[in-house]
Write a structure and sequence with these properties.
alpha+beta, 3-stranded antiparallel sheet, binds zinc ion, 217 residues, 5-stranded antiparallel sheet, 6 helices, 12 strands
Length: 217
């Protein structure tokens, strides 16, 4: 299959679009997903540069976020089946520690992230624990679904799970031009909060800034 891999850490010139082996099921709780869309996060840059997390085993297919169609599942998988349209949660924990037991796998000391510890979504196929596959509502395109996991789940955890945001409350969003900041702005406004957006520059840092800025008042 075709994929975007790195063979060494560094700048964008280290990205290679090349042929590589297709992933195969290695466990009864896994799924193989044929990717239709992948999104780009700042984390991918850190993975490419080798500046976050643990050193990658190279070569490595980058990409944390993606969406596609389930191509194959292991024998014990119950939540998805081949043909399902799914969005991928990129992070997996050990499944045994106190954080994994309370749906806080992002705090697990043995967490693994697509594109960093495992081959990621800049590819035709990806292997992932089936429990990380979630059905896409029919109204969402693959591209829209692929843009959700890293930023929106992070923001949901911050604003809704931890802060328990209520309508009418104020939210100060620092660095509103990035993915996390713009997602926080949209969710805060959607839930009736008063969003105060701050940024170190008037320049947009992503292409959707103009639309989000219009709802910040
Ligand atoms: Zn764990």
């Amino acid at each position: 299959m075709k994929a975007v891999r790195i063979h060494e850490h560094g700048g964008a010139d280290k990205l290679r679009f090349e042929d590589c082996p297709e992933p195969e099921l290695a466990g009864v709780y896994e799924a193989i997903v044929k990717l239709e869309a992948a999104s780009i996060n700042r984390r991918d840059i850190g993975s490419r540069c080798g500046t976050i997390g643990t050193p990658a085993i190279l070569p490595r297919i980058l990409g944390a976020d993606g969406a596609g169609v389930v191509a194959a599942v292991g024998g014990q998988v119950k939540n998805v089946k081949p043909g399902d349209r799914v969005c991928l949660y990129p992070l997996s924990g050990c499944g045994r520690c106190e954080f994994c037991a309370t749906d806080r796998e992002f705090m697990c000391g043995k967490r693994r992230v697509l594109g960093e510890h495992e081959n990621g979504t800049y590819a035709r196929y990806v292997r992932i624990p089936a429990r990380n596959c979630f059905a896409i509502p029919s109204a969402l395109t693959f591209a829209e679904a692929a843009a959700l996991p890293s930023v929106y789940l992070t923001v949901w955890r911050m604003l809704m799970t931890n802060a328990e945001l209520k309508p009418g409350e104020h939210v100060l969003i620092v660095g509103v031009g990035g993915g996390i900041g713009s997602a926080a702005l949209l969710l805060a406004v959607h839930f009736g909060a008063r969003a105060i957006a701050a940024s170190g520059s008037d320049e947009p840092t992503n292409s959707s800034w103009g639309r989000e800025k219009s709802v910040s008042a």
